[in-house]
User: Fold this.
Amino acid sequence: MTPDPRWNRLSNLFDQALELPEEARANWLESACPDDPALRAEVYAMLKAHELRQGILESDLVTDTRTVLQETVAEALADRYDVERLLGEGGMASVFLAHERKHGRKVVIKVLKPQIAARYGVDRFLREVRIAARLAHPHILALIDSGEARGLLYYIMPYVEGESLRQRLDRAGPLPIRDALSLLRDLADALAHAHRAGVVHRDLKPGNVLWVGNHAFLMDFGIAKLVDEQDSMELTDHGFAVGTPAYMPPEQRISDPSLDHRADLYAWGTLAHETLTGRLPLPPEKAGEVDTGGVRAHRLELPESVARLVARCLATEPSRRPASAEEIVAELDALGAPSSAAAPTRSLSRLALLSIAAVLSLGGFAVWHATRSPPPHAGGLPTPITVLGFTNETGDPSLDTWGRMAGDWLTQGLQATGLVPVVPWPTALQASQLLQAQRQEGKSVNPVSFLREETGAGTVVSGSYYLLGDSLQFRLEVADAVRGRVLGTIAPITTSRSTPQAGIEVMRDRLMGMIALWTEDKIGHARQLELRPPTFEAYQIFEGGAERFRNQDYAGAMTEYRRAFLADTEFVGALLGAGIAAWNLGDAKLTDSIVREIHLRESKLGDYQRLRLESLDALLAGDGEAEVTALRKASAEAPGSMATYNLAVASLSTDRPQEALAVLETLEPERGDMRGWSSYWTQLTHALHLVGDHERELKAARELRSRYPDRRVGLTLEVRALAAEGRAAAIDSVLFAARALPPATYWSQGAAMVVAGEELATHGWTEAGTQYLMRGKSWLEGQLRVQPGDESHLYWLGSALYDLGEWARSRQIFDSLATKDPDRLQYRELAALAAARTGSVRDTLGPVAPADRGEYTMFRARLAAIRGDYTGALALFGEASRLGLRGLPWIHASAYRDLVAFRNDPRALPFSLRPAQASAAKPN
Amino acid sequence: MSEDSTPSGDVTGLLQRLRSGDERAADQLFPLVYDELRRAAQRAMRREREDHTLRPTELVHEAWFKLAGPTPEPLHNRAHFLGVAARAMRQVLVDHARRRNAGKRGGAFHHTTIDGLTPGEEMPSDEILALDDALTRLGEQSARLQTVVEFRYFSGLTDAEIGELLGVSERTVHRDWLKARAWLYKELYPSR
Assistant:
């Protein structure tokens, strides 16, 4: 191509002109190109175009017509929603009515107009979505979903069939006073909630209030201003005041940057005025000072105090308005204003919500419970951190596992940094699943506040994953659960669909880095992990194991965990699960062999897991003190987790009932790992029994029975609590009721009778105790005629015979059990004790596993007591409790025949060898 | 072989030939890339859930990963590819706009397009055709300016990448871009 001299000249002129200040270019061009006006005009046009910078090359996002928008929305959301029609258009968004197929309900989709999005509103829209997402309140229209689809930003709210307050006022004039006060109270309550979350609505007006069956919803936080956001000025940079003039306080009209929540109180006052009188108040400049006659002039029957309240809200000076929306709520409550739903207490508001949801089929609402105490902070970060299971947005349920795996691995990564306490994965997983279940039930739940409520999280990490062709894309967000603010996100991570673990690994490392950065002074201390996520297959098997563990199917759990490890031998976490399951099966040998395997691969464990391993080591070594120490650390790392529960159990084994109780009281049976974990209640009754609080013990046992009516253990514990207070009649009625329960061999009717007898005898009701032991004995003998050789029945019968002093028969039974099950030290011990009672001494019981050292020492204590060596017995008992003694909460009763001498011995006081609270009363 | 799979070996080979100055390689690469871009657009259309904006540049990058495989290629290879892709993308968009305009004229405007370019992200078809036209005329004056626009606008390359590819400085690329843009706007929006 030959260079065109004209083009060259044009090109040079343009280049040179650009070097000059804008205003100097035109004159310069005149002098630089005096000879060719056409060329000059051309360069001049280019310079103008350059300065204007508007055209196709600036953006590739252009949409013009409404139809195209609706069809695009319909198409973009076609997988879940059928878009029915356009409901209306606001200044910046279009509102569509749609049908959500999954839940069969109507929803409202609010879509930011593309031209607005492209020009300046994306951030603003995103802010609206963030605000709406953080506000979960019965009187704030909740957010169902939000996102970006095909370049469109949208959010989805429940469709509420009702009319706006605007429509209602236009149609029928002012509301009856009772209704008006109820509505105004609801709105004030919603504002109070929003203000607490740091959000000012800034556009409260009748058009933004839905009024449905006497229930008010505040909606459209579209122009709300985050009080704590720095960039607040940008909203007014465009040269218009935000809001609706009639409801704007004077300070908002002049775009006063110091505007705060009291602007909403002014708007509330205006809205109140209109709702009560059907008229707007006079604008401040005309009214000067609004006197209390303002509202009452039109509504004579209105209480004077309401009129005063409205007038105060309308004060020109923000400082003369009520200090907060709470104050308005309090004043209306004092007046007896009826609230439609948001009663001051949690339970009441839940109840009210349920009924509203039922009436309106709205699907329900999440209530933000700010009842937890503020969490501690690590650097600037509220803790602990909870990682939510990632949301599967691929539309392929077979990929669900990846979401859980991402959550699991991120959790472990954070634990490994050692910088912040992290809610352990099982707890977080349960919370995630609950959240999902609630959503599936059609409830709109604010995930961040839900997680805070469920796990106590200060910071929540959440994310989702999508399919992009054959790759998978992960997205992640970190939110401050206390203030409901997004703290940060990481750039989407794309990975191959066949190896998503690689993406999870990258994401984990970035998250660790981000957290390390936030926790200030500890930057750089985060360790590089050797851990890598397991294969898909292995993780799936692992999850099956976890499910079985939860259902207390330890054998099944162990098998699955081992299979998971075999599927991916780098997956040492699965092996740890197998070890814990094996221990729960009571198989110390197997546990030991698994733990050895784990130690060979210890570097592949996270910190929390390593502490769990340490506690298993301690259990296997029979070192109760070491177990408590390890579990204390693990529990600190993951408060409220299974480790905390295990710490309580270990505290009981080492004769620290007070500590066990304190630990159990920090756990919340309704949340996290403890939900559905019946043993929580068992341990609670143990601790209460040992500290002698039998009243609460009884309550806990009854709680267990009512929660798990089919499990007989609750009944046995209830019987024990009653027996401790000598309440024989009550025991009988429990036993009578229990006959209807499905039979179980271990916690049988006979077992309950034996427990009752031992406990009564221990607490001094010897005669009543003997009666129950006799009844237990004959019940068990009867059962054994039907089920001869039943191990459980034999064990309880042997115990009853021992308690009744029938040593020879007792010995016979335990000997037979010991022969059948030689690995079980307990049978050999009980046989030896019965033998000792008849004068034949067996000092050696054969091999004792290290794990059984505590139990063996307790056996030696009992033996010493039988021989009359009480000092030796006490020393041995102290030793046994240091080593850790499973079943310690039962020992004072189950061994009462041997320990009877300690009942009044002050030296035994520090130990749980004697009942904590002996009463002299006779049984009733 | 499924429609989605294109042997990436072919592409690598073609790219190598292109780098060693074999201009015919570009001609052979073009149809591959063009097809892949159209497929990428169609895939995007079929996705059950769309989570990203379907922008031409993203399609080009997706096509690059598709054709060149997941292993990171040296920059010059990628740049060569993107160079070809820029032209292919321009062609995809122009063809699409032509079809759409034809539909309009027939009075049977339907927004669901064959190419999978949804109206939400779509450039107005008249404007894209005008741009294509103006770009061709610009190319008659300066091939480099045309290339810069194609690379930057249709392929999403950065100034640095374009500079490397064309063997000029980043600053030069930027100046070219400003000039090309001003010239194109002058052509496209004469009444301003």
Notes: Helices of chain B lie at 8-19, 23-46, 56-68, 75-105, 125-141, 143-154, 159-166, 170-188.
